[in-house]
Amino acid sequence: MSGFNLDDYVAVNERIAQFHEKYPEGSISSSIHTLTDTLVVVQAFVFRSPTDTLPFMGHSMMKIPGATGFTKGSEVENAETSAWGRALAAAGFEVKRGIASREEVANKA
């Protein structure tokens, strides 16, 4: 990922704040799609309003145990945050150069 500047990355928590500013009645939800001893898959939904029938979606998969000190022991939480970030990216909330989480980018840089 040469040339990628982490300073250009918009963190998920910032995108959540931007989403709620634009859609004060909106919501973000998630569900565990798959959970085994070796894998978690989370699906996230971004609803612009309580009556939104076409939410934006995002998914994230993480191996268990996590590969880094940051992910090991919090695989479900990391997968959920990543899925939220992908759903927010699909909804048009800026991520700059990619859709991966900041930690995924840092771990691959």
Give an account of the 3D structure.
With 109 residues, the chain is an alpha+beta fold. It has three helices and three strands; from the N terminus they run H-E-E-E-H-H. A three-stranded antiparallel beta sheet has the order 1-2-3. Helix 1 crosses helix 2. The N and C termini lie close together (5 Å). The mean pLDDT is 87.
- Determine the structural class based on helices, strands and strand pairing: alpha+beta
Q: How many DSSP helices?
A: 3
Spans where pLDDT lies below 50 across 5 or more residues: none
Number of strands: 3
User: What portion of residues is helical?
Assistant: 25-40%
Keywords, separated by commas or semicolons:
alpha+beta; three-stranded antiparallel β-sheet; 3 helices; 3 strands; flat; 109 residues
Give a quick summary of the entry.
The protein is an alpha+beta fold and 109 residues long. 31% of the residues lie in helices and 24% in strands.
Fold blueprint:
Layout: H1 12-22, E1 27-35, E2 39-47, E3 56-63, H2 75-90, H3 102-108
Antiparallel strand pairs: 1-2, 2-3
Helix pairs in contact: 1-2
